[in-house]
Amino acid sequence: MELIRFNLIGLIILVVAIIANFFASQLGLKTWYDFLNNWGNGEALRVKDGLWLFIFYPLILGGSAQLGNMIWKHLF
Q: For residues 68 and 17, is the Cβ–Cβ distance under 8 A?
């Protein structure tokens, strides 16, 4: 049963991450893919990209894990 719980939470995190990355690219923010591909080329990270990648994106993903836990508790 625990494996099903982890799978549900993982799927919710995945869906939220895809949606968050879509909106980030629409807003002109760097995604982790963009950041890692430009890692060594000397391109500076803008403040808004840094805030997105290191503050807001992890908060969103953590919140999606909490959402998965809440959904699990209501289902079972």
A: no
Q: What own/partner pairs with CB < 8 Å and gap ≥ 24 does 6-13 have?
A: 8/68, 8/71, 8/72, 9/65, 9/68, 9/69, 9/72, 10/68, 11/68, 12/64, 12/65, 12/67, 12/68, 12/71, 13/61, 13/64, 13/65, 13/68
| Distance separating alpha carbons of residues 29 and 44, to the nearest angstrom | 13
DSSP state of 39: T
Q: Show pLDDT as tens, one digit a residue, over the chain (76 residues).
A: 999 999 999 999 999 999 999 999 999 999 999 999 988 888 889 999 999 999 999 999 999 999 999 999 999 8
